[in-house]
Amino acid sequence: MKATAARQLIVPAIAVAFVLSAPFLAPAFRTQMALLWVMIVFALTWDLLGGQMGYNSFGNVLFFGVGMYTCVVIQRDAHLGYYGGLFLGMAAGAALAVALAAVLGSGILGLRGHYFAIGTLGLGIAAGELASGWGFVGGGGGMVPPLFPGAVGGRETFFYFMCLALALITLPVMRWLYSGRFGLAVNAIRDDEDKAEAMGLRTTQFKTTAWCISAFFLGLTGGVVGNLIGFIDPREVAFAGSTYGVWMVLMAILGGKGTLWGPVIGAVIFHVTQELFWRYLLGWQRVALGLLIVFIVVFFPVGILGWARERWPERFGHGVDETPSQGPA
Amino acid sequence: MENLRLLFAAPPLAVQLLLDGILIGAIFALAAYGMALVWGVMGIINVAQGEFVMLGGYAAYYLYRAGIHPLLGIPVAAVALFILGWALYRAVVFRIVDKDLFISILATYGLSILLQQLANVFFGANVRTAESGFGTFYLLGGAVTISQIKVVAFAAAILVGAFLLFFLRRSRLGQAIRATAQNARAARVMGVDTDRVYAMTFAINAAICGASGALVAMTWIVHPYLGLPYTVRSFMIVIIAGLGNVGGVLAAALGLGVAENFAGFILGAEYQTAFIFVLLVVILVWRRFWLARQRRYLA
Question: Given an 8 Å threshold on Cβ–Cβ distance, is B270 in contact with A140?
């Protein structure tokens, strides 16, 4: 009994030690490893809508970009010192993202199916185009966040831990959300929205709340990533619909839509693959990514966990009744 | 807002924008009609629509570089894209015909990124145009200038559209396509090879987009990242007009062309693309509230 408890502790302990020491073990890859945690947040927040609620959004990157811009604008204009500006900026970015989700939600979340998908796609790109025309936020030239005050290289380590913290907060929050009434309601909306509404569920409220939660984490992440990358381009970094916006969807699908761990697994595999593309297919990496999207969507739409669930249903708590039915049911 | 005042001060300017808008609208109508065709027959929203337009533009551009007049490039671009569309159907698209719409949107979005990036690698990111060597019309005593190529492109777009309609109404394949759109299963029972019909529909759509892309290359510019705005324009036009409503598609496309030109002038050219995407969101949300009201009348 004691031995198994100890063994159960060993694996998480190694994982924690590895994750905490990673930036010191491989300092050259700190930015990439930090982005790995960001990708996990992306996939998890997308899956809250796409997987659990059945609302496939291409525009969640909107909240990411809004958070990023808000954070950097506050860092630029508030004169609160580096950390004061950063944390106030992140908070303001998250608040603005949530407010935006609440306002837009009433209109956009009324769209169903493919209209929602295309509408949110338009939303994300519109935001990028607007930002690149608006001089206050640097226009098409983008913005540069203030310089990190610490030692050279301290910036990457600091933001690595920020990203890690974000991912480590998002995962349990999602887990907690899915385990309760909220998760059931959201799944009911995915399975049959009209029926859920007829059963007395306030679907619009739940949908908007889900979008706001998604927006909250994306807004926070935006502020961190803006400072991590050190340069904000409206179309390529902040409102990057054709990279981050699609990757969110892809990672969740690759890992398995509508599961807690699927998006995490998908994000890890996708991010590693993507970095390998950058390393070995330079110049062709975007082409390879397009090919990868088509390949995953066409040949593997159930995802890794979805496939595993079909393969070993018992392990996922689905009892398989092997006895033939007796007479007419 | 200064530009708005300018518009009232100088009415010929408004005439100019109106004419330019109408002339470009016909090209939008072509791509939109292709999208409606694929959507109606195969139940697929093709996000790579704009990339077909872009590739058609490059076909016309390279023919022009080889010394062939761009007008002759239109049929060549159409044929080249027909082959590409057919190949894409056989390689990828046939696998997503029966899947749900989201899978088809995501898969064609992947295709769109793939084609866009391939164009970027092979053709470079520079802005290209195929000079047609036409002159300019001067109207209202020189206050309004219309380059003749736009008029030619307008006429060519209408011609291609008319030919397509005739083809769908009269030809054997056109009838099979329409039968499949109405009821694929019944068509199969009646002996229509629906797989072939789907392949031809997708290829014809690509060919239409190729033709409209050649027109775009002549009248405006092509670059690898041109695609998505054309896809979104087509989508808007189709949801305003509805599937299988040719007159509606043409009217909506001309209206969109005019609206876009005025918006580009009033808001400034840097917001013209933003206007398209904001308009898409506004139209979708407005349509949803409009439908909700319709339903309340029925209840």
Answer: yes
Q: What is the pLDDT of residues A29-87, one digit of tens each?
A: 888 888 999 999 999 999 999 889 988 888 899 999 999 999 999 988 888 888 888 89
Q: Name the residue in chain B with its Cα closest to that of A59.
A: B281
Domains of chain A: total: 1
Q: Could you report the per-residue pLDDT of A236-264, keeping only the tens digit for each?
A: 888 887 788 888 988 998 988 888 888 99
Instruction: Say whether B97 sits in a helix, a strand or coil.
Output: coil
For chain A, the residue count is 329
| Residue A60 structure tokens | 């969640």
Contacts of B253 (CB under 8 A, 6+ apart): B25, B26, B28, B29, B32, B233, B237
pTM for this model (two decimals)? 0.86
Q: Which domain holds residue A98?
A: 31-310
B43 secondary structure, DSSP code: -
Residues B256 and B28 sit within 8 Å (Cβ to Cβ) = yes
Residue B38 has pLDDT above 80, yes or no: yes
Given a cut of 70, whether residue A324 has pLDDT beyond it is no
pLDDT above 70 covers what percent of chain B?
98
DSSP secondary structure string for all residues of A160-215: HHHHHHHHHHHHHHHHHHHHSHHHHHHHHHHH-HHHHHHTT--HHHHHHHHHHHHH
Residue B154 near residue B21, CB atoms below 8 Å: no
Radius of gyration of chain A measured on its C-alpha atoms:
21
Residue A279 lies in a domain: yes
Q: Output A213 or B4, whichever has higher pLDDT.
A: A213
Residue A321 covered by a domain: no
- Third-level CATH fold of B2-272: ABC transporter involved in vitamin B12 uptake, BtuC (1.10.3470)
Residue A263 in domain:
yes
Cα of A253 to nearest chain B Cα, Å? 10
Residues B236 and B213: their CA atoms lie apart, in Å, by: 18
Contacts of A107 in chain B (CB under 8 A): 285, 288-289
Name residue B117's amino acid.
Q
Reference B125, options A294, A286, A144; nearest CA is A286
Instruction: Tell me the residue length of chain B.
Output: 299
Q: Which residues of A touch B281 (CB under 8 A)?
A: 108, 119, 122-123, 126
Give the residue among A68, A114, A235, A178 at the shortest CA–CA distance from B239.
A114
CB neighbourhood size of B22 (10 A): 17
Q: Which residue of A107, A287, A294 is in closest CB contact with B117?
A: A287
First to last CA, chain A: 45
Contact A289 B292 (CB under 8 A): no
Residues of A in contact with B292 (CB under 8 A): 110
Do A119 and B280 count as a contact with CB atoms less than 8 A apart? yes
Domain ranges in chain B? 2-272
Q: What is the CATH number of the domain that holds A163?
A: 1.10.3470
Spatial contact of B10 and B139, defined as CB atoms under 8 Å apart: no
Q: At what angle do helices A262-280 and A30-50 cross, to 10 degrees?
A: 140
Dihedral (CA of A142, A143, A148, A149) sign:
positive
